[in-house]
Amino acid sequence: MTAYFAALAAALCWSFGGLIAVTPVNQLGSIRFNRIRMPMVFVMLTGMAFLSNGWSTIQSTYFNYILFSSIVGIFLGDTALFYTMNKMGPRRTAILFATNAPMTAIISYIVFSERLNAQQIMGCSIVMLGVFLAIVYGTTANQTHRWEQIKGSAIVGILSGLLASLCQASGALIIKPVMEDGADPITISALRVGISAIFLISLGFTKGFRKHSRSDSKLTPKLVLWVAGSGFVGMAMGMTLLLFGLARGEAGIVTTLSATTPVMMLPLLWIKTGERPALGSWLGAIFVVIGSAVLFN
Prior knowledge:
This protein is mainly alpha-helical. The protein has helices spanning 2-28, 30-51, 63-88, 90-97, 100-111, 118-136, 154-180, 185-203, 207-212, 221-248, 251-258, 261-273, 279-296. The chain has one domain (2-296). The protein is 78% helix and 0% strand. Helix 1 (2-28) packs antiparallel against helix 2. The protein is globular, with a radius of gyration of 18 Å. The model has no long low-confidence stretch (mean pLDDT 87).
């Protein structure tokens, strides 16, 4: 039972982490935010890896898997994710990111020729229905908070959210052989985040990248704390709780419970903004959880 509470706690951490990230992402921009956040999270995860003695499980043959998984899943995926949050707000971003579950199944079918059975197809369809409901019918005229406003093109925001999910699913599949070989998950996460941090910092010195990541906001101690808080709650705590749950509980149930993030975010948004989420938001989030349950179990 403890494992399943841990999975729910992980989903709650990801909900809080997403909401904490909104302010610094809006002020710093997604690229600059990630350039600051990644080194912080690397330090957190590295310390946790030393405590768990996870470094002893790492082999040199893992390097290519870790490198490409880091570039695709974190460097590209996280940048697209926080770009989406800046454009679409935390609620829509969370629901779009939930599509990484069906994308994992579809990529496995296309790349690895893994068979999709009727249950998996049904799960993917229910998740996509939930995303459609939450995006199209997720707001009402009474919701005027800035977190519910779309900046720029909605199509661009939706595509960037789907790209973030695709990168997350691809990165997870790339690193899958390493995890199946018994490598410590926390240490692997630390290495993936560290490599992503190096890429982000290095690209920050290039002229074109610097132009697109420019922000008028000054980096204040308060903003640094917001960034560190989102990394600690969303990645360090959330990931640790998920790993604890996976180590002690049935993987399908744990994964389904950890997919409740879009549902958990709705009451938190209600409290924060004072605006009740639309019926479409609730139905969409519930369909995502149901679809995940069908897909994973």
